[in-house]
Design goal:
Shape: globular
Radius of gyration: 22 Å
Helix content: over 70%
Number of helices: 21
Structural class: mainly alpha
Largest sheet: none
Length: 520
C-alpha cells in the first residue's frame, strides 16, 4: 500500500477521532450529570432499562445494520453513476425509513409494557419501578426514527469524505441530555423524565446539525417510495443478515439486562456506567477507524482495487490495537481511580465507585475484541458478505449467554461484563481468521507479533506506574488531587508505552509522528 494511502487513512481517522473525542467527553459529562442528579438506584435503573430498548433497535435500523448496508451501495452509485443516482438512492432510503421505522415506533409505544416485562422482569416486583420504566420507554421510542434518518445522513457525508460533521453530530445528542436535567429538574416528578426529554432533544439536534453539510454537497430531500428499486433491493439483501446477526447480539444485551434486574439494586447502573467508560476509547479510536474504513474499502471494491484490501486491513487493525491495548491496560489497572474522578459526587458514593470499578475491570478485557470487530466487520460488508459476520455474531452471543450463567455465581453482576468481554474477543478472532477466505495477502504471523509487542509495552508501562502510590505522593483527596492522579497515570503510562514501541520499531509510532509534523 502506498504512503499517501497510509497517511490519508491515518489523517481521516485522526479527524474522526478528534471529533468523536469531543462527543465522548460530552458523553462522560452526560453520565456525570446522571450520576450527580440520580446516583445508581431505582430511577437510574429505570431510565437505563427504558432507553436500552429503543437504543438496541437503533443498532438494527440506524448506526449498525442500516449504515453498514447503505454506505457500500451508495458509494458504488457515487463512483459508477454519479451524484444524481446516489442522491436518488438516499431519498428512497430515507423515505422507506420514515414509513417502516414510523410503524415500528408506533408499535413500540403500544407494546412498551411487553418489552419492559421481557427485558427487565425483575422490575415487576416493584410496580412503581415497572410503571415508570414503561412510561420512559414510550416517551423515548420516537428517538429511533430521528437517529435512523441521521445515520443515512452520516453515511452520505462519510462517502463524500466529509468525516468531521458526522462525527461531531452525536455531541448534539449529549448536549441535549446534559442541559435538560439542569434546566427542568424542578418541573418534573419524578425528575428522571428530564433525561427522556433530553434524548428527544438531542436526537433532533444530531439530525439537524448535518443538514447544512448535506446542502453543501448538493443533496436535496424529496419523498419518494419504490421498494422495487435495484439499489433498495441491494441494501435489503445486505441488511437482512446484518439485522439477524445484530438481533442475536441485542437479544444477548436484553438477557444481560434481565439478569442484572434480578441481581443487587443498582447492578444495571454499575454496568451501564462502566460500559460508558469502556466505550470512550472504543468510540474515539475503533469507531473512528471503522467509520473511515467502510467507505474506503467500498471504494476499493467499486474500483476493482482488491489488491489493496489486505494492506487496508493491516493498517486499520494496527492503528486500532496501537490505541486500544494501552487503554485496556489502564482501565483494568486504574479504572477505579477514573470512576472516582468522573462520577463520585452527589448521589454517587464510594460504594457505587467500587462496584462500577469492578465492572470496568472485566469490561476492559474485551476492549480489544470490541474494537477489532468494529474494524474487521466493515470489510465483509463492503465485499457484499453480511452472512459471515451474522454467523460469527450468533456464535459469540450463544457463548455469551452460556458464560453468563457460569460467571455470575463466581463474580456476581460483574460476571455479565466478563462474559460480554469473552464473547467480543471470540467474535473478533472469528472475523479476522476467516477474512483470508475473502482477500489474499493477510500476514497473520507478522500481525500477531505486532500486537504482542504492543501488549508487552502496555504491560510494562502499567507495572512501572502501578509500583508508585500516587495518592500518597500527591497528598490530596479533593477533585484536584483525583485529577492529578489520573493525569499522571495516563501521561506516564503513555510516555513509557510510546518509548518502548519506538525502541521496538513499531511503525504506528512513526505514522503518528509524521501526522503531527504535517499538522504543524
Amino acid at each position: 500500500m502506498d504512503k499517501n494511502h497510509d497517511q490519508s487513512m491515518t489523517a481521516s481517522a485522526g479527524t474522526v477521532s478528534a471529533a468523536t473525542a469531543l462527543s465522548r467527553v460530552l458523553g462522560l459529562v452526560r453520565e456525570q450529570v446522571v450520576a450527580y442528579f440520580f446516583g445508581a438506584g431505582m430511577l437510574t435503573d429505570s431510565f437505563v432499562a427504558a432507553f436500552r430498548i429503543p437504543n438496541l433497535l437503533r443498532d438494527l435500523f440506524a448506526e449498525g445494520a442500516l449504515s453498514s448496508a447503505f454506505v457500500p451501495v451508495f458509494k458504488d452509485k457515487l463512483v459508477r453513476q454519479g451524484s444524481r443516482e446516489a442522491f436518488y438512492l438516499a431519498n428512497l432510503t430515507i423515505s422507506s425509513l420514515i414509513v417502516i421505522v414510523g410503524c415500528v415506533v408506533a408499535l413500540g409505544i403500544i407494546l412498551s409494557p411487553v418489552f419492559v416485562y421481557i427485558s427487565a422482569k425483575g422490575f415487576t416486583a416493584d410496580p412503581v419501578k415497572f410503571g415508570l420504566t414503561v412510561k420512559l420507554t414510550r416517551l423515548m421510542f420516537v428517538y429511533l426514527l430521528l437517529v435512523s434518518v441521521s445515520a443515512v445522513f452520516m453515511g452520505m457525508l462519510n462517502s463524500h469524505r466529509r468525516f468531521g460533521v458526522p462525527a461531531l453530530s452525536p455531541a448534539l445528542f449529549n448536549i441535549g441530555m446534559i442541559l435538560t436535567p439542569g434546566l427542568l429538574y424542578e418541573h418534573f416528578n419524578p425528575p428522571i423524565y428530564t433525561l427522556a426529554f433530553g434524548v428527544l432533544v438531542g436526537g433532533l439536534g444530531q439530525l439537524v446539525f448535518q443538514i447544512p453539510s448535506l446542502w453543501h454537497i448538493g443533496y436535496r430531500f424529496r419523498f419518494v417510495l419504490n421498494f422495487a428499486d435495484e439499489g433498495i433491493r441491494r441494501i435489503a439483501r445486505l441488511i437482512s443478515p446484518m439485522i439477524l446477526g445484530l438481533s442475536a447480539s441485542r437479544i444477548n444485551i436484553l438477557v444481560n439486562t434481565l439478569l442484572a434486574s434480578l441481581l443487587i439494586e443498582g447492578a444495571l447502573s454499575y454496568l451501564n456506567f462502566a460500559y460508558r467508560l469502556m466505550h470512550f476509547p472504543l468510540g474515539v479510536f475503533a469507531v473512528a477507524l471503522g467509520t473511515v474504513i467502510l467507505p474506503r474499502v467500498s471504494e476499493e471494491v467499486a474500483r476493482d482495487q482488491t489488491e489493496r484490501l489486505a494492506g487496508t486491513f493491516h493498517e486499520a487493525i494496527g492503528l486500532t490495537m496501537f490505541l486500544v491495548i494501552p487503554s485496556a491496560f489502564y482501565l483494568a489497572g486504574f479504572g477505579e481511580d477514573l470512576v472516582r474522578l468522573i462520577f463520585q459526587r452527589g448521589a454517587f458514593g464510594p460504594e457505587a465507585t467500587a462496584q462500577t470499578g469492578r465492572a470496568l475491570l472485566f469490561y476492559s478485557f474485551g476492549l480489544v475484541g470490541f474494537a477489532g470487530v468494529r474494524v474487521a466487520a466493515p470489510i465483509y460488508y463492503a465485499l457484499g458478505d453480511a452472512r459471515r459476520p451474522m454467523n460469527y455474531s450468533i456464535i459469540s452471543v450463544v457463548l455469551n449467554v452460556v458464560l453468563n450463567f457460569a460467571f455470575i455465581p463466581l463474580l456476581g453482576f460483574a460476571g455479565l461484563a466478563a462474559a460480554t468481554s469473552a464473547a467480543g474477543l471470540i467474535n473478533f478472532l472469528l472475523l479476522s481468521i476467516n477474512l483470508r477466505k475473502k482477500i489474499d495477502g493477510i500476514r497473520y504471523f507478522s500481525l500477531i507479533l505486532h500486537i504482542l509487542k504492543m501488549i508487552l509495552a502496555a504491560l510494562a508501562a502499567y507495572l512501572i506506574v502501578s509500583s508508585v502510590n500516587l495518592m500518597v505522593l500527591i497528598e490530596r483527596v479533593d477533585l484536584i488531587g483525583k485529577a492529578l492522579v489520573v493525569a499522571i497515570q495516563i501521561a506516564v503510562m503513555g510516555g513509557i508505552y510510546l518509548l518502548m514501541l519506538w525502541l521496538m520499531r513499531v511503525e504506528e509510532v512513526k505514522k503518528i509522528l509524521l501526522l503531527l509534523r504535517r499538522k504543524k
